[in-house]
Write a structure and sequence with these properties.
Strand content: 15-25%
CATH superfamily of the largest domain: Enolase-like C-terminal domain
Oligomer: single chain
Largest sheet: 7 strands, parallel
Number of domains: 2
Structural class: alpha/beta
Distance between the termini: 52 Å
Number of strands: 15
Bound molecules: D-glucarate, magnesium ion
Amino acid sequence: MSGPSTSRISKVVITPVAFADPPLLNVVGVHQPWALRAIVELHTDTGLLGLGETYADETHLARLDAVAQALPGSDPYDTNALRRLVIDVLGKETGGAGASFGGMLDVSSAVDTVYSPFEVACLDLVAREAGRPVSDLLGGAVRDRVPFSGYLFYKWAGHPGLPADDWGEALTPEQIVTQARRMVDGWGFGSLKLKGGVLPPEDECAAIEALRDAFPDLPLRLDPNGAWTPETSVRVAERLAGVVEYLEDPTPGIEGMAQVAARTDVPLATNMCVIAFEHLRPAIAADAVQIVLSDHHLWGGLRRSALLGGITDTFGMGLSMHSNSHLGVSLAAMVQLAAATPNLTYACDTHYPWKTYSGRAQDVVRPGVLDFDDGAIKVPTSPGLGVELDRDLLGELHEQYLSCGVRRREDTVYMRSIEPGFTPNTSRW
Ligand code: GKR
Ligand code: MG
């Protein structure tokens, strides 16, 4: 690669980490006791360090490693060249579809998911060198705080065979309201999303109605990850019209979503049927979704996510932000992106509160920067992403990775070890 930059990437370190995760239920099963992430470090010959965070399934790690080996000598300013390098390396080494998301998504691009953490780390580096926050490299912050929504999950009291966690069981509307109260009181969230696809739709509607009674002013969302048929989705939309701000992926696929959209005014959102640029044209043509959830891990980094923002704006669609279990480097990148995306008008998703339950060290960044205040995070204005690695915590979470035995996200496999007859609830109701 060539370019006028003064720094070159001299060393790449990828550290897989694991953090304790509660038994959160979803359409394909249940979260395993450990969630995995990989922390990407790019070091330069001028002594700078850039950070990225991504999934850590074994196949993904192997792809990250292959790219890491080819990176030294590269120019961190030249992210077009970085993308060509990733395409080249994956073409030779692996190719094929991207990370698996526990079986929930089967189409995602390996290039986008592998490129993403390296791009984020490059932008962190370049921004640090410039002495500016990453949001400035994305066009500049248009807001100084980024609101998030409280992400509610049905859950068991604890992982089978382990003591109950302090979040407790959440399988009834009352228990979901209790969980929501903890989210609202503890983090100040000003909107709530319930992960559905776990119980029959009538039960999940009842939980949403209980939330409406308990929190009359908070926007509410329900996301069953495609658990319903189009017919059921329309029925739920009729029942929850005026109650939810949007329904997320009620039914699988662009065609199914379009059928539902044609029969309801309730806005439909997705992070399942539109997860790459090639899905936008058919989704727009079919008027299948009104809101797309961006996710820089999946869409190929921060700049491509900003591009997604521009496209949704052009076509009059709404933009929200998706999350999977994550740590502070990801959260910092989400905040910088959200800060610089003018049409991101919905509160972003985050799993962040779920890693606070066990009393153990559960992050890799120094605390204090990403604190929630009134459900929002103040956009860091210090150089780069605004977070610093805590090497002791990184080491601790890496040790947990080494000893925990989990090597990929497998919600269905784990569920079947507890309920042998379980099959995913996709299109079940
Ligand atoms: O963490 O179980 C989970 C979620 O269901 C996650 O995997 C989804 O990707 O949060 C996500 C969503 O909005 O669909
Ligand atoms: Mg979703």
